[in-house]
Design goal:
The complex is a heterodimer of chains A (245) and B (168). Chain A is an alpha+beta fold and 245 residues long. Helices cover 33% and strands 28% of the residues of chain A. With 168 residues, chain B is mostly helical. Classes of the chains: A alpha+beta (245), B mainly alpha (168).
Chain lengths: 245, 168
């Protein structure tokens, strides 16, 4: 009986009427808490829309975004063009052809190799010649069964190079000795002995990023930009077989 | 006479071929500091001394063409070889023929140095340079001068024996 009386008192209409709004409020705040204020934020956005800032700043942001997008597209197009050019060079050149060295003239005035493979084997003038370790030079002339290589050390050899990682660009000059000279184009290049020299990405003659050698000594006093002697990673006097493409 | 001319032609062809062969592949033991002797000089000197300036100059053009076909790349040995042949050819009619070993060695030394100087000049005009030009030139000239008394003396004897109108 006592239990029944207490229950009827709890369900009393007046009590329900007085506590109901509090319960609704509690429920509302619970929803707000769980949704992290989303309904309130949306409500605020709808209510404050007439007072939002003018469209000028929004236009500026859109324009800057467009500029950024255009720049990214230009950069990507540049990269794509370079990749396509590189791929084109590779496609034109075909597969690597292995050839024996049948004669070498690596004395002072000329730095040449004679290879025992020529036009019949698919070698073309201007093809790149590499040995174990790195680039040796280019094919300067071809006969049906032989081809002549102008080495990187030849006094008339000029090759566009850069330090690995694209840090500094320069030209590699053959000087008739076993160590060609690299002359950098920029004065602010930081080069030190041990830096790896590779073929330049800007070169239209050699494929990019082929290893040439290692900077052996640096002359920072040379003007207008630093110079360095490069120890080639493929020694022409010891190589008996080369690859041509 | 005709027989001697025939032998001379054969000797000319054979020695020219040997010259070209040695130009392509000089053995390592015949090099000094990596440099081979100046084979065109060693061949041209005895020929010009025996045959005179005109035949010498003609041979110089041929030898120069052969030499340039292997090296070349815009640099020619022909002008200096022709000049050397014209100079050495003057010794044919000299009162004292050029046949002593030391004289041949000295002529070969000068010829080799001149040839190297012409290469250096032509390279310089083309914008190139050789770092160790002096070392290279001296090594080649010394080796050429050392070989000349043997190589050139034998050839002088050979050409004299095979020259049709040789009165010596």
């Amino acid at each position: 009986m006592a239990m029944g009386r207490r229950l009827s008192r709890l369900l009393d209409r007046s009590l329900l009427l007085s506590t109901g709004p509090w319960l609704v409020l509690l429920l509302f705040f619970l929803v707000v808490r769980v949704s992290k204020g989303a309904p309130l934020a949306d409500l605020y956005a709808q209510l404050s829309r007439p007072f939002w800032p003018g469209s000028a700043q929004s236009e500026w942001l859109k324009e800057s975004q467009q500029l950024e997008d255009q720049q990214r597209i230009a950069t990507l197009e540049g990269r794509l063009a370079r990749l396509e050019q590189d791929q084109q060079l590779r496609n034109q050149a075909g597969d690597w052809i292995t050839a024996p060295v049948i004669s070498r003239r690596i004395e002072g005035w000329w730095q040449q190799l004679e290879l025992g493979a020529g036009r019949v084997q698919g070698i073309k003038t201007g093809a790149v010649v590499t040995g174990p370790g790195g680039v040796l030079g280019r094919i300067s002339s071809v006969t049906p069964s032989t081809s002549r290589v102008q080495l990187l050390t030849d006094p008339s050899s000029r090759v566009g190079v850069e330090l690995q990682g694209g840090r500094g660009h320069g030209l590699l000059f053959g000087e008739g000795s076993s160590r060609p000279l690299v002359k950098f184009l920029n004065n602010d290049v930081t080069v030190q002995p041990g830096d790896v020299v590779v073929t330049s990405r800007a070169s239209s003659v050699f494929p990019a990023n082929l290893i040439i050698g290692v900077v052996q000594s640096v002359n920072t006093q040379a003007g207008p930009a630093p110079q360095g002697l490069v120890q080639l990673s493929a020694p022409a006097d010891q190589i008996d077989w080369v690859r041509v493409r | 006479m005709a027989d001697r001319s025939w032998w001379r032609l054969q000797a000319l062809i054979l020695t020219s071929l040997l010259l070209l062969l040695l130009t392509i592949a000089t053995p390592a033991w015949l090099r000094l500091d990596g440099m081979p002797p100046s084979w065109p000089v060693l061949w041209l000197l005895p020929w010009a001394v025996v045959e005179g300036p005109i035949a010498g100059a003609l041979a110089a053009v041929l030898v120069g063409l052969g030499f340039d076909s292997f090296y070349g790349q815009g640099i020619s040995s022909i002008p200096v070889l022709v000049l050397l042949a014209l100079w050495w050819g003057q010794f044919r009619d000299a009162r004292r023929p050029l046949e002593r070993s030391t004289t041949l060695g000295l002529q070969a030394l000068l010829g080799s140095l001149l040839l190297s100087a012409s290469f250096a000049l032509q390279l310089h005009w083309r914008g190139g340079s050789v770092a160790l030009a002096w070392q290279v030139s001296l090594a080649q000239a010394l080796l050429t001068a050392l070989l000349a008394p043997v190589v050139c003396s034998v050839q002088v004897l050979l050409w004299r024996r095979l020259t049709p109108d040789d009165g010596r």
